[in-house]
Amino acid sequence: MDFIAVASALRTYNETQFSREIDPADHMWNTGQAWYWDVGRSGLDCIMRGLAASPIAQPRSILDLACGYGRVARHISAAFPAVRLIWCDIEGAEFCAKHFGGEAIYSDRELLNVRLPRVDAVWVGSLFTHVAEPRARTWLAHIVACLNPSGVMIATFHGRTSMRLYRSALSHMTPMLDRIETECSATGWGYEADHAATDPEWGFSVTAIDRLARVAADVPDTLIGGLAEGGWAANHDVLVLVKN
């Protein structure tokens, strides 16, 4: 997507009033009203940079995977009103389809069980931040497989920028961050389950940037289109993969 097309989409966005409809169950809103709108807009900026790395002239379809209740989705809808939009999550996808247009797909705790549609672009905001490396690798391959030729995936990960932010703002997390950063220093990927006894495969992860680059390079049939530390809202690292 060339810069003229990116500029056109941003012009459409600036001329459109994005929806400010909030679902009472929106955890991102309930815990972060002060930065909700800015983080959502930053997600759109990440998507635009990812699309600029793809030779696709104009995306015809965009999937927001782990869309929640639309922190980023509402901005995608405002920038791409004529594009097929698909929202996917365990909760929130139907809310997004109702208020922002497009289609809803129910997800699953095991993403490999979800039949993802063929699309030109996928935004994955804060999904890989919850899983260990082996699961991230299988999910990356599963997501990339749904991309059309030259399609692009934009996904976020916790890195050292995230760790500095959480340490400064969330002191109660310090013991867990100490443990997970020790593992990350040793292996490149640290992970701790939220509830190890009942759900060992869902928790909090942090990834060293060089490890993330190696993991990305192993994803079949892709090129790395970008890797930015703190690229999403001065917090998450952002990986862009382009389908060969």
Protein architecture, described:
Strand 6 and strand 7 form a beta hairpin. It contains nine helices and nine strands. The protein has one domain (3-17, 33-243): Rossmann fold (3-Layer(aba) Sandwich). Helix content is 39%, strand content 27%. Helix 1 crosses helix 4 and helix 3 packs across helix 4 (73-79). The relative contact order is 0.14. The longest helix is centred in the first third of the chain and has 17 residues, at 36-52. By secondary structure, it is α/β, with parallel strands linked by helices.
Short characterization:
By secondary structure, this protein is of the alpha/beta class. The chain has helices at 3-14, 27-31, 36-52, 73-79, 93-100, 133-145, 160-169, 174-187, 209-217, and strands at residues 61-65, 84-89, 103-106, 119-124, 147-157, 189-195, 199-207, 222-232, 236-243.
